[in-house]
Design a protein that fits this description.
The protein has about 350 residues and is mainly alpha-helical. It is built from nine helices and seven strands, in the order E-H-H-E-H-H-E-E-H-E-H-E-H-H-E-H.
């Protein structure tokens, strides 16, 4: 067997080509989840606007009436936000489960296609979705809406003016011709294997789990609701009929962060299962690169940890990450690294679509 010295698998064309296609699948699953959350959020915002209009019309203007109206509004939107929170958490948990398991299986396959003997084992227990930021974000918005309702009633504004107050506090819809990518695509490469036929990495994942992954990838979700017209930021509208809509607020950002974390964790688990104790940090270096990512670029996890230990546990940016993401909207990725990689003879593997559909 040949030995490759001091080489990251990211330099291997088969590894790079396969992980690019893997990331397309993961991005599609994320976008479908985002669409569902945007749709549910639009429905909730419509209900909130309707309740604000209904209750402000019936308010009589006295201090007692103001207190009663605010109390009733609190009760109504509390139910709306609770329903929305449960829906988002359910979608988020499903996304994390699918993402984590698929990342493990696909990373092992990518490692094997690089010529390294690899296999995988998927933990049946999924990672737990962090619901605290979701609940915090919705509660913060709820109290902001209650304050606007109270101010409008105290100022004896019309029902329309109060409704406009409420709507102005809602997160704004943005439309994109193409939604922003979370897993950034590196430079394109050409796959070295021309006629793939076989899976490269053996392992076990239940048929039910794999069916969930494939179904999530193939699902085409059609939104059912449109949010209140006033929450659309017309300056951001682009792409015409083909545009996709996102609120772009903290709840969606939290979902993106959790998604990226599970992708990277899954990659790390698969690498560790196959004898890689180090991963190399790969940053996209441009004018938007964060300082905490720039100095980590090209370093292994052990090298980053050693640097952090010298700095007292975290860098000047207050970051202690040894694998991406280092911060919200982090565009960095990682790849297995070893100073002593055993390689095996190349095999004719299946193409990516066949691998995905024929497990």
């Amino acid at each position: 067997m040949k030995k490759k010295k001091n080489k990251s698998l990211y330099q291997n064309p088969n590894y790079k080509a396969f992980t690019q296609k893997r990331d397309v699948v993961l991005e599609k699953i994320l976008r479908t989840t985002q669409k569902k959350i945007t749709d549910a959020t639009s429905h909730a915002f419509n209900d909130i606007q309707a309740q604000a209009l209904r209750l402000s019309i019936s308010s009589q203007g006295s201090l007692a009436a103001v207190k009663m109206t605010v109390k009733n509004f609190d009760r109504e939107i509390d139910n709306i936000f609770l329903s929305l929170a449960l829906h988002i958490m359910s979608l988020g948990q499903r996304l994390l489960d699918i993402t984590y398991k698929f990342s493990i299986v696909s990373e092992a396959e990518a490692i094997a296609r690089a010529g390294v003997k690899a296999s995988y084992k998927v933990n049946p227990l999924p990672p737990v979705f962090n619901s605290k930021p979701i609940l915090y974000g919705l509660n913060k918005l709820k109290y902001a809406l209650l304050k606007e309702m109270e101010l409008g009633l105290i100022n004896e504004e019309s029902a329309k003016e109060i409704s406009d107050r409420i709507t102005a506090k809602l997160p704004k819809i943005q439309r994109y011709k193409r939604p922003p990518r979370i897993l950034k695509k590196p430079a394109s490469v050409k796959e070295a294997i021309a006629k793939p036929k076989f899976d490269a990495a053996p392992g076990f994942i239940t048929d039910q789990d794999w069916d969930k992954i494939v179904s999530a990838y193939k699902e085409e979700y059609i939104p059912k609701f449109r949010g209140p017209e006033a929450v659309y930021d017309l300056a951001d509208i682009d792409g015409g009929a083909d545009a996709e809509e996102w609120y772009g607020w903290e709840i969606e950002k939290q979902l993106n962060q959790e998604f990226v974390q599970q992708v990277r964790d899954g990659q790390n688990v698969a690498a560790n299962q196959n004898g890689f104790t180090d991963m190399v940090w790969i940053a996209i270096i441009d004018d938007r690169t964060d300082e905490c990512c720039a100095w980590r670029d090209g370093l292994t996890t052990s090298e980053i940890q050693a640097r952090l230990d010298e700095m007292g546990g975290e860098d000047e940016e207050g970051c202690d990450a040894t694998i991406p993401p280092a911060h919200f909207n982090c565009r960095c990725t990682l790849a297995p690294y070893s100073e002593d990689i055993d390689t095996v003879p190349q095999t004719d593997f299946k193409d990516f679509d066949s691998w995905l559909n024929d497990q």
